[in-house]
Amino acid sequence: MMGDFNIHNNFWDPNYSFHSSNSDLLIDLTDFMNLRLSFPANPVPTRYSDNNCNSNSVIDLMFLRYRSDELDFYSIYLDWRLVSNHAPLTVCIPIFEKLINIKKQTLVKDSNKEKQFISVLINHIHEINTSTISDVASLKYSI
C-alpha cells in the first residue's frame, strides 16, 4: 500500500520535529493489515515545495508485507517527477517461476459417468424444499 498520506511525522521525516497522532492511527491500521512501513533505499524528500517558504517533506509512504525479505526497501526517483511536486516511489517485486500442477476432471459426453452425474444432479434438485417459496420476494430471502 502506498501513496500520498499527507501526514508529517518525525518518524519517517527526520527534518520534521513533531510527532502526529494521525501517524499512530495509520501505523495501527497498516499493522492490522499485516503491512509495515518500509523505508527507502535512498532517503530523500518525496514532496517538493513549489515555493521557498515551505520546506520539502516526506509524506509519500509505502507499506509492504510484514517480514518480507524480498520487499524490504523501495526507491525514490527524483528525476522522474518532471512537473509533479511528488517523486515517484518504486519497488521491485520478484516473481519466481513456479510449477502449478493443475488437475482437470471432465466427463466424456454421452458416457455412463455423464449419465450418472446428471441423474444424481436431477435427484438433488428434486430434493430442494420449495414449499416456503410463495413469490419472487420470498425466493430472494430464502437462500
How would you characterize this protein structure?
The chain is built from 3 helices and 6 strands. The model has no long low-confidence stretch (mean pLDDT 86). The protein has helices spanning 21-32, 112-126, 136-141, and strands at residues 2-4, 35-37, 39-40, 60-65, 73-76, 89-90. 10% of the residues are buried. It is of the alpha+beta class. The strands form 2 sheets. The protein has a 3-stranded antiparallel β-sheet with strand order 1-4-2, covered by helices on one side. Strands 3-5-6 form a 3-stranded mixed β-sheet, with no helix packed on it.
Radius of gyration: 28 Å
- Specify the number of helices: 3
State the total count of DSSP E strands: 6
Biggest sheet statistics = 3 strands, antiparallel
Q: How confident is the prediction overall: mean pLDDT?
A: 86
Low-confidence stretches: none
What percent of residues are in strands? 5-15%
Structural class: alpha+beta
Order of helices and strands: EHEEEEEHH
Strand order in the sheet with the most strands: 1-4-2
> Between the first and last Cα atoms, what is the distance in angstroms?
36 Å
Shape: elongated
Helix percent reads: 10-25%
